[in-house]
Design a protein that fits this description.
Strand content: under 5%
Distance between the termini: 78 Å
Radius of gyration: 21 Å
Number of strands: 0
Order of helices and strands: HHHHHHHHH
Oligomer: single chain
Number of domains: 1
Largest sheet: none
Shape: elongated
Structural class: mainly alpha
Number of helices: 9
Length: 195
């Protein structure tokens, strides 16, 4: 495999990873907000969230693997596996390693959810915000393209999407999971009273 192909694969898979991780966060918030649209049941949002998360992990793995085996970067396994163990942009690469471990913990606890309970799963799942933030910081501080117009657009899109979703989660009233049932009940009672 050519060095140039590895270099571009590392950069491209990093950008795609950030986009996918942002999508995972947004879809997670939509799931919590009980997002539903005509023709789009809520379970599809959850299934899409899970599948995008797995695809994001594949791209993170490609990103890390190509960075490790690329002779130009010559990072090695220590830089990829030990937070702040790199000689190159130590702090920023360390944030990426921590983000990778957080993502792995979130996936592992999701797979073990039935065994560890909802409370433990939820506690670890809150780490998704940190995982995303660390990945963004890693991209900004380590990425060789982080100041190019296309990457600034990618970063801006990711920040706006996550900010809007998080803002909606924090500022909008909590959804009532029984609101549709209550509306049907009120309608039925109203019809019976009108008789």
């Amino acid at each position: 495999m050519s060095d140039q192909l590895l270099w571009y694969t590392t950069r491209g898979s990093g950008a795609v990873s950030l986009l996918l991780l942002s999508g995972v966060v947004v879809l997670g918030v939509l799931g919590v907000r009980r997002f539903e649209a005509a023709g789009w049941p809520r379970f599809l949002t959850t299934a899409l969230h899970n599948n995008v998360a797995l695809i994001a992990l594949v791209f993170v793995a490609i990103h890390v693997l190509t960075a490790v085996i690329d002779p130009f970067t010559n990072l090695g396994l220590v830089a990829a596996l030990v937070p702040f163990g790199s000689y190159y942009r130590t702090f920023w690469l360390g944030l990426g390693v921590i983000s990778m471990y957080l993502a792995a913990a979130i996936v592992a606890t999701s797979l073990l959810r039935a065994h560890i309970g909802h409370g433990a799963w939820r506690l670890v799942h809150w780490g998704a915000y940190g995982c995303w933030g660390l990945a963004l910081a890693h991209t900004i501080g380590t990425g060789t393209d982080s100041t190019s117009a296309w990457m600034l657009a990618v970063q801006g899109l990711c920040v706006i999407a996550v900010a809007v979703a998080t803002g909606a989660r924090l500022l909008l009233p909590s959804p009532d999971p029984l609101s549709a049932d209550r509306a049907r009940f009120r309608e039925r009672v109203s019809r019976e009273v009108d008789r």
